[in-house]
Design a protein that fits this description.
The complex is a heterodimer. Chain A contains two helices and eight strands; from the N terminus they run ββββββββαα. By secondary structure, chain A is α+β, with helices and mostly antiparallel strands. In chain A, strands 1, 2, 3, 4, 5, 6, 7 and 8 form an eight-stranded mixed β-sheet that branches. In chain A, strand 1 and strand 2 form a beta hairpin. The longest helix of chain B has 75 residues. The radius of gyration of chain B is 28 Å and the shape is elongated. Classes of the chains: A alpha+beta, B alpha/beta. Chains A and B meet through strand 5 and strand 6 of A and helix 1, strand 6 and helix 6 of B.
Chain lengths: 137, 288
């Protein structure tokens, strides 16, 4: 079992970010973290903002933050479609904070349906920021 | 007979045109390479998304409206994707022509049509006979490379219009890139999402779903619209640069031919003048 691996693919809309054989990945599913080992049962799940841990030989070799997305797991493969992905040590909290402030400024000039959308976007960014804080803590 | 000076001026003017077209060709070639790479890189995401939708669509008994439609086919939205700039051969006109044909076909069937333009040239061409149908125009999306963020903004707008009940069916018209010489005008329905063929459905039914099929679809389908818009934009950008490259290559060659012709005329004229002057001098000398 120890030498068995599964193919882990991380894809963003722009490009294929990562494709490699790994021992295990832990993925932030919307119903809780789940680990994917070789011969995992086929599964499709939505993902929430959080950290993907990539394991090889029992040790974490890579930690990647994603801003939500989808995972498709089959017996020999785990594909993550991420909306945005950055390595955990490159997370830029300040940039996200700035974006929230900027969006807040924009919100002041809007009203009605547009304001609602903007509020929804701000909330989304705040959830993202919160997840980033947890990831870097 | 044109004067030598006039010919010289024309030759110089054609030469500077040639310089511009050949520079534009070079720029288009570089941009084309980049656009092609980008389109290539974006392919895995949309392929995998198609696969997930295929497996989900077969399972969800009654999918959300984005998948199953509104139950009606009467109101159409045609999204016409063109470039913001011209000088790219038949690129914009071929899309506009396809759009006009599509509009005529739908109107012939008694359906109502609205047009959503992405890119300035498409709007300019359609405004002549379909001004009242154009609901909105977005410009400058492809100016500095295509970003997913702008595609997802457009996708979001389409979905909002759909949810507000502005249309039943949404079709994209864009140029699919085949080579720098050929682009294929493509009509692609995005709302309701066409269900991919279920033939390769070997393991599809065996998936477990978290949370459940419908909830995943509610999340996935808007993403899918954005992804489709994104890949259409990428294909279109690659096509635009390809078409411009070919057009500018032709223009450069034509300018070259023209310079050759003009130079020949210039030299002939010059010789004729010299001969004429010689004759004048000689006959003048003989008369003495």
């Amino acid at each position: 079992m120890a030498d068995e691996t599964t193919l882990f693919e991380l894809v963003s809309p722009e490009r294929l970010l990562l494709s490699r054989q790994v021992g295990m990945v832990v993925v932030p599913g919307s119903e809780g973290l789940f680990g994917v080992l070789p011969r995992h049962a086929p599964l499709i799940s939505t993902l929430v903002p959080g950290v993907i841990d990539v394991y090889e030989e029992g040790a974490v070799i890579d930690r990647i933050f994603i801003a939500g997305g989808f995972a498709e797991v089959t017996e020999d493969r785990c594909t993550v479609l991420a909306e945005a992905a950055v390595p955990v040590d490159e997370i830029d909290l300040a940039a996200t904070e700035r974006r929230i402030v900027d969006l807040g400024e924009e919100l002041k000039n809007l009203s009605g349906a547009e304001a609602e959308q903007m509020t929804a976007r701000i909330e989304e960014q705040e959830r993202l920021l919160e997840a980033m804080r947890v990831a870097t803590a | 007979m044109p004067s030598l000076k006039d010919l010289k001026i024309r030759i110089n003017s054609v030469k500077s045109t040639q310089k511009i077209t050949s520079a534009m060709k070079m720029v288009a070639a570089a941009r084309l390479r980049r656009a092609q790479e980008q389109a290539e890189a974006a392919r895995p995401y949309s392929e995998r998304m198609d696969r997930m939708i295929a497996s989900l669509a077969g399972r969800a008994a009654r999918g959300p409206a984005l998948l199953s439609g509104t139950g009606s086919q009467d109101r159409h939205l045609v999204v016409v994707m063109t470039a913001d700039r011209g000088l790219c051969g038949g690129f914009n006109s071929s899309i506009a022509r396809a759009a006009r044909a599509r509009i005529a076909e739908l109107e012939g069937e008694g359906r109502s049509v609205n047009v959503f333009c992405i890119g300035r040239k498409g709007r300019d061409q359609l405004r002549r006979d379909h001004a009242s149908l154009i609901v909105d125009t977005i410009e400058g999306v492809t100016q500095r490379g295509v970003e997913f963020a702008s595609a997802s903004e457009i996708g979001g707008r389409l979905i909002r219009m759909f949810e507000e009940g502005a249309f039943d069916v949404c079709t994209l018209i864009y140029n699919r890139f085949q080579s720098a010489m050929t682009q294929i005008v493509t009509l692609q329905q995005v709302i309701p999402a066409p269900v991919p063929d279920q033939e390769g459905d070997a393991g599809g039914g065996l998936y477990e779903y978290e949370p459940d099929e419908e909830e995943i679809l509610v999340d996935l389908l808007p993403r899918n619209v954005a992804t489709q818009v994104y890949s259409a934009l990428l294909e279109n950008t690659a096509s635009e640069h390809g078409a411009r490259m070919t057009a500018m290559d032709n223009a450069t060659r034509n300018a070259g031919d023209m310079i050759d012709d003009l130079t020949l005329t210039y030299n002939r004229t010059r010789q004729a003048y010299i001969t004429k002057e010689l004759i004048e001098i000689i006959s003048g000398a003989e008369a003495l």
